[in-house]
Amino acid sequence: MRIAFVSAASHFDVRFTKIAATVRQAGHELVLIGLDRHPGVEVPAPPPGVVVRLLKRPIRTRGALLRAVPAFARHVARHLKDTNPDVVYCRDEEAVMFALAARLVGCGAPPIICDLFDSLPLRVSGVLPRLLARAVASTALSQARQIIVTDENRRGLLASRYLPRVTVLPNYPRLADVMTTGRLPSGPTRILVAGQLLRQRGLGQLLDACQGLKGIELWCAGQATSPWVREVFLKSPLTRYFGLLSQSQVLALTEACDAVFCFYEPLTLNDVNASPNKLYDSMMVGRPVIINAETQVARFVATYDVGYVVDYYDTEGLRSVLRSLPDARPHLSEFARRAAALSHARYSWEAVESRLIAVLAAAS
Asked: Where are the beta strands (DSSP E) in 136-246?
């Protein structure tokens, strides 16, 4: 089977990497038709065997993204025609719209899968923008033969008419990416900050909470496109930036830390309903997360006792958690065994990837 993966982003994405590994292992061809928003920034290579067709456009603002829409639509149509796929796998509703536009100009009509990494109506705020986003989402999901969501919570947010076509494919880590050594952190207390480095991911709260604490370091990896992140956060004497790393490298870095920071400012429904890779990554490696209470997934963290839950704007509460981490080190080995055992038993990509194969078969 030949699969075209359409995305308004590049191949540098943890979830795409896992999907690609499963697809290629099953013997399918995979072509990514995407958008490189930061040309010139070196990122890890795509998974082996994946063909990448990127439109390179520097995009730093929402206006720049809107201006790039016509060029990206032509890019998608051209490469869908050249690829002639059996299935078009779309990241979020807007990618479906680009695939539908390509149909209108004679690029074929292969079945569509819509994987809701971050559903469009959840990402926008304001009455009119949300109405428009819902209209786009309704069109996209109605045209998709199969729909994928990242957890049961997000499945529950969809209209009941879509549910017969919905599959839950969680953001669990691949066992193949995990190579733990069993070593525990030593020296300064280290907090891992990984993924999209954005101010609205609690980075200001984290810096404020670190004030007055001694022997603490913030180890960071991921895309740093925000001016505030580059000029303020990464220039803090507390911060050590490792750049853009592969998933296996991030997991290795996780093991050297005391905890993983996982904050989402509760500005949109997407933030409240976040389904973070890093939660399950930290469990697999055996490190606690620090997550804000406003997220739905914080209930999972509290139920299974796999981290610390604190309100997003509670700087003193966050400082208290950070201050407690040195005293938690004697118990970290026991925590690591329990969290890793839970993760290996129930929360690995290998435990759920058969769902992806089933979706591909159903779509084609």
From this structure: 146-149, 166-168, 189-196, 216-223, 239-241
Which amino acid is present at 128? L
**What's the average model confidence in pLDDT over 98-103?**
96
pLDDT in tens, 183-192: 899 999 999 9
For residues 176-203, average pLDDT: 93
Distance CA 56, CA 12 (A): 14
Q: Which two tokens stand for residue 63?
A: 């206006």
Which residues lie below 8 Å from residue 364, measured CB to CB, with a gap of 6+?
A: 1, 86, 87, 111
> Quick check: 294 and 269 in contact, CB under 8 A?
no
pTM to 2 decimal places: 0.94
Q: Which residues contact 257 (CB under 8 A, 6 or more apart)?
A: 185, 190, 191, 192, 219, 287
Helix, strand or coil for residue 190? strand
Per-residue pLDDT, 42: 83
Q: At what angle do helices 332-346 and 277-285 cross, to 10 degrees?
A: 120
What are residue 35's DSSP bridge partners? 55
Q: What does the pLDDT look like over 139-168, one tens digit per residue? A: 999 999 999 999 999 999 999 999 999 999
Q: What is the DSSP secondary-structure string of 80-105?
A: HHHH--SEEEEEHHHHHHHHHHHHHT
Between CA 298 and CA 314 the distance in angstroms is: 15
Closest CA to 84 of 20, 8, 29, 146: 29
Q: What percent of the chain has pLDDT over 70?
A: 100
